[in-house]
Amino acid sequence: MVVDTGGVLTLSKSQSSVMEELAITTTIGMDGIPLVAREAAVARMPSMIERQAASAVEESSVVIFVVDGQAGLVAADEEIADWLRRNYSDKCIILAVNKCESPRKGAMQASEFWSMGFSPLPISAVSGTGTGELLDLVCSGLKKVENYESFTDEEKYVPAIAIVGRPNVGKSSILNALVGEERTIVSPISGTTRDAIDTEFTGPAGQKFRLIDTAGIRRRAVVASSGSITEALSVNRAFRAVRRSDVVALVIEAMSCITEQDFKIAERIEKEGKGCLIVVNKWDTIPDKNQQSATYYEEDIRLKLRILDWAPVVYSTAISGNSVEKIIDAATAVEKERSRRLSTSILNQVVQEALAFKAPPRSRGGKRGRVYYCTQAAIRPPTFVFFVNDAKLFPDTYRRYMEKQLRTDAGFTGTPIRLLWRSRRKSERDDGKLLPLKSQPSLVPRVKNVSLVP
């Protein structure tokens, strides 16, 4: 596992240079932040980045200390080298002198860094020069895992929870509150999180998860108009995090309620087939709350996010840690439903009751759709295959009705379900091999008796 940390800045730098290095001046949302809060957030940023870098070094087996070969040795490099020698002399530390594109000049550029007490290795991230030797050094510094075979046997499936939403709704605060420490930088300046950050987490009941904190997702037109390549890459990484997750926590801000962008994100979650829970963060900002406030708020969510009407809703205040444990409880329940499999007998009983309550409509030609049997083909998400006489005889309205009946009778809260409709082959249609579900005595297709006459 490779961890890329933020650039460690010296505290002696002015606030303007810090903002320039962090590209905060181009971050959307600065205009809406008061000047005092903005200056305070910028002043705290270097120490927060340093704390994150220190946490990464603490947990690592190998440290790659990167310096600029073209800029040469600077005071900040000496400070970091002294800090590494003083605190982490027991770790494998590799000094990589970057931007050494020329092999001949690279050795001369790297020689300047011998004074720091490490063996400098000239590399070029652009051309790839020296990266093979760097990889060999990294691998030589990694410790071997004893009893690897038994380790892999005990390895279990660990579901991933992606925390997504618009900028500045409290995604990083939720992750920090769940983990119990500041794993990600939290700032009133939106856009602080620019990459999808994975964190291992063990719940109170011992269940393990992989939490993925993502960058805030704004509308595509707004991202394009801002001209920020960094933000465009961050949004793409957030969507990739949704794709590789199992459960998605869609975070919305209580006072902002549901926006068009929230609906766009919800569409992506449903399209990817991921489990989902809706987290209403900053619930403490709602004034004059009473027992009915949550009920009215959920009704508004169900109305505006109809595509996620199956997702549970959780209310939390991440900054104070209030009710954040409910997020893990809901995610655990969603993952369990997403991995559940129904037996074919129970599934066909549910389908038969749905058919008895409401038969498929007739076509203009007088034909009516018939369901022969149904089976569950997959999990994550649950996928059901309906074997019918003609899939064209089942309109979208009836397919939605069947999905609703499946949810009502069989559950699957918090996960999308997929219904596949398979038409009977022409040969089967002519021979009449399959009977409709209501007249079928068993789940095995009935075949006509055939006599062989010489």
UniProtKB/TrEMBL annotation:
List UniProt keywords, sorted A-Z: GTP-binding, Nucleotide-binding, Repeat, Ribosome biogenesis
The Gene Ontology biological process terms listed for this entry are: ribosome biogenesis
One GO MF annotation is: GTP binding
The residue ranges of the EngA-type G domain are 159-339
Instruction: Provide the Gene Ontology terms for cellular component.
Output: chloroplast
Q: Which domain of life is it from?
A: Eukaryota
* Pfam families registered for this protein in UniProt: KH_dom-like (PF14714), MMR_HSR1 (PF01926)
Q: Give the record's family classification.
A: Belongs to the TRAFAC class TrmE-Era-EngA-EngB-Septin-like GTPase superfamily. EngA (Der) GTPase family.
Function, in words: GTPase that plays an essential role in the late steps of ribosome biogenesis.
Protein name, UniProt field: GTPase Der
Q: Which organism is it from?
A: Kalanchoe fedtschenkoi (Lavender scallops)
Q: What is the lineage of its organism?
A: Eukaryota, Viridiplantae, Streptophyta, Embryophyta, Tracheophyta
